[in-house]
Amino acid sequence: MVTVRRSIWHEPRPAGAPPVGRFDWLLVGVFAAAAVVEGIARPGVAWRPLVTVLALALIPALLWRRSRPLIAALVGWGVAGLLSVVQLTAPAGDLDLYSMMAVLTLLYSLVRWGSGPEIVWGTAFVTVVVALGMYVSSAGWADVFGGSVLLLLFVALAAAFRYRADLWRRQQREIRNQERMELARELHDTVAHHVSAISVQAQAGRVVAGTEPDKAAEILAAIESEASRTLAEMRSMVRVLRDEEGAAFAPQPGVADLQALARAGATPTVEVSLDGSLSRLGRPVDAALYRLAQESLTNAVRHARSVTRVGIDVRREGDAVRLRVSDDGRTEPGPAPAPGFGLLGMAERAQLLGGSLSAGPGPEGGWVVEAVLPVEAPA
What we know:
Elements: H1 2-9, H2 22-41, H3 48-58, H4 69-89, H5 102-113, H6 116-136, H7 141-208, H8 213-242, E1 269-275, H9 283-303, E2 309-317, E3 320-327, H10 341-352, E4 356-361, E5 367-374
Parallel strand pairs: 1-2
Antiparallel strand pairs: 2-3, 3-5, 4-5
Helix pairs in contact: 2-3, 3-4, 4-5, 4-6, 5-7, 7-8, 7-9, 7-10, 9-10
């Protein structure tokens, strides 16, 4: 109970309260018209001018019920309490108008839109006013029970809608976080691959610039091509993010596009081997295999020492497909380095599809990355 009270007390106001709109003005107009008509035409109402004016005085508080829920509740229920005090000090018959039921809306809004302290103080004030009203009207146990159930029903509805909206906002935040992580992986995998290729080509260009001008020109052309591809992919991502009505999505690269990563005349040499039935892979698995191979190749080019060859091997094994990327670089002795964003993103890709990923020094030297994914991604 102590924990519950503390959690309620520290509860902030819900975000996203809508501003005053047409419906709010319509609600105020309906209650005001009902109070005037009832004050004029309803028989048996004592002190008609006073009761009608007080009813009209509380109705504008409906406009504050979301922006200032505590003040609105204090005004509305304060008018109701004032009528009870008047009836207690100068018994004059019935002082209630049915249009005063607007205070139930204020109670609902207090629990729905108020902060923890506002809810505590506001409901305490409402409880005192209700108890006073029941005492003045000499209500029987049946009336007390029925009135209490009605008030608790409004409180329960407000709490239910409040926490349902809070759950929805949490789900939206979780979805946005997942999209951000996916975007981060895509940016890392695509841009880092091309930038690494540009860096390697630039280093080679510096070596041959003075002795082999023709070779240097070829390297510069390759750098230009890689830079253009990087810029095109970046523009495509930005276009998707900025276009509110959707963009034309290019098909994701897959296993069939791995051959484009093969390089025979450059250093390191990249060899691609595909084995088994790889044409009917699930789309998420197909795209993940390409991204995992691309990132593994990028890591080998950027981080492996004295690497001359990188092998990319993909083979079907029953209901699973295995990707193996290995290089012949020199492995430094000592503990393995801490995984960076690339390896973390690769592991997340594999886990999201129900697979696994391992990376570490190979038995014959170099570095080996192995991923095993199901042929069909889990639903």
